[in-house]
Amino acid sequence: ILILLQAPEIASIVDLRGSASRLIEACSQLAVSLQAPQETAAVDVFVRSYTDFHTAVAQAIKQQPDGVQRQQCVSYLETVRNEAVNVIWRTHTASMDASNASALQLLSQSTRSLTESVNAIVENVSREAPWQRECDAALRQIKSVRHILDRANLPVNNDGYYESLDSVTEQAKRLGEGMTGIARHAKNQDTHSLCESVHIAADAICGLAEGATQSAYLIGVADAKSQPGHAAIIDTSKCHRSVEIVKQICERIERMEYTQQQILDDATVIAKHTSTLANLCREASERASNVNLKKQFINCAREVASSTASLISAVKQLDSSFTEKNQRECTEAARSLYTAAQQLETFVDNPDFAAVPARISVAGEIAQKTAKQLAVSPADASTWQRLADNSKIVSESIKRLVTSIREQAPGQTFV
Questions:
Q1: Range of the domain at 242
Q2: Separation of alpha carbons 316 and 304, rounded Å
Q3: Rounded CA gap, 405 and 415, in Å?
Q4: CATH at residue 375
Q5: What is the largest CA-CA distance in the chain?
């Protein structure tokens, strides 16, 4: 009888994990199908995948016995829904104009945010072994960044050629450590350490993809006939990601959906992300050449910092005395921070702040090709699944990647 009662829950979780993976795969495919004949079909697959995932999550939430966790899942599901809408909208915007760097970066940000929220939901409701959850989350994380390798006409970050090469080398080293750890900890049945190694390896693969893409961009624009682009004044992807998290928590505080411990944890998360926003504004102010623009970025940072300080103070007061009066003060402070974050989000969503894509010559594209092709290999899902047995294959492909980047160093043709 017990087995029969548990069967629907197990089936639901399996469906949830499968639908989560299909959703991220569809999202990644959508990002690489811009302006391609298969774009419409990719949109249809994405919509169906999202519908399946939403249904699976709704079923899992009904079976969740803990009320607090149930509410968290509902909140995450709302985030997934919003990000899914953003993905469709930003795909449409980017497909209308492939040179719209801002739209492409926002699409990439939505893809990552969607992956993070999907992973949070699966983590919350899954009942399988931790190592299995970690491996599934790692695969979804890898899929979510794979599309950046297909578009190397935009700088991924501000790294120069040798900084990118150092990044690729360092991430390759971390991947090697992660792979070794996976094999060792799996053999010793050390689940906690195994999960840590899987996480390290997944982060390293994503770092490799970014480093290789930045290197490919720099190699491409180094050709004399290429026209370099330039990086965005502010990292809109990182900014929108932090703003979204701050707004979600503020909304939860406004609705008073928290326990005393939860609001303390939320305050810590808010402090982390508002600090990120302040640093982004400071960096943008340093990059901006217009004096008024510099001041606007600084003012935005001050507004966010001031509102955050007020909220943190209100939360501390609530922690010492959990009363309705202090709860109302927290609500007002959260509302104020929400407004400041939203104003910053509106301000930075300006096409003039976006990166300008490079115009890469035919010769530049040929030089890029090797690095881009080899960069895909370490992130291949089938390679990942056979990671412990095939570490030599991955290691060799990374060595070829690093060698390829070194051989294509800008300026060699003029020496």
A1: 236-353
A2: 18
A3: 17
A4: 1.20.1420.10
A5: 78
If one counts every other C-beta atom within 10 angstroms of the C-beta of residue 293, the result is 17
CA angle 273, 89, 94 (to 5 degrees): 95
Question: What's the one-letter identity of residue 251?
Answer: E
Domain identity same for 118 and 154: no
Domain stop point among 90, 125, 160: 125
Q: Residue for token digits 């965005």? A: 232
Answer yes or no: do 368 and 221 share one domain: yes
Q: Give the CA distances from residue 11 to residues 6, 15, 55, 57, 128, in Å, rounded to whole numbers and listed in that order.
A: 9, 6, 13, 12, 12
Give 76-85's long-range contacts (Cβ < 8 A, gap of 24+).
76/117, 76/120, 76/121, 76/124, 77/121, 79/113, 79/117, 79/244, 79/248, 80/50, 80/53, 80/54, 80/114, 80/117, 80/118, 80/121, 81/54, 83/110, 83/113, 83/114, 83/117, 84/46, 84/50, 84/114
Residue 226 lies in a domain: yes
Q: Kindly tell me the sign of the dihedral angle through the C-alpha atoms of 21, 148, 195, 259.
A: negative
Walk along the chain (415 residues) and give the pLDDT tens digit of each residue.
Answer: 233 233 334 444 447 888 888 998 888 888 777 766 677 888 899 999 999 999 988 888 888 777 777 777 787 788 888 888 888 888 888 787 766 666 777 787 788 888 888 888 887 776 666 777 778 878 878 877 777 766 666 677 777 777 888 888 888 888 888 888 888 887 787 888 888 988 898 888 888 888 888 887 777 766 666 666 666 788 877 888 889 889 989 999 999 888 888 899 999 999 999 999 999 999 899 888 888 989 999 999 999 999 999 999 999 999 999 999 999 999 999 999 999 999 999 898 877 776 665 555 566 555 555 444 444 444 455 544 554 454 555 566 666 666 766 666 565 544 4
Q: What are phi and psi of 151, to 5 degrees?
A: -140, 85
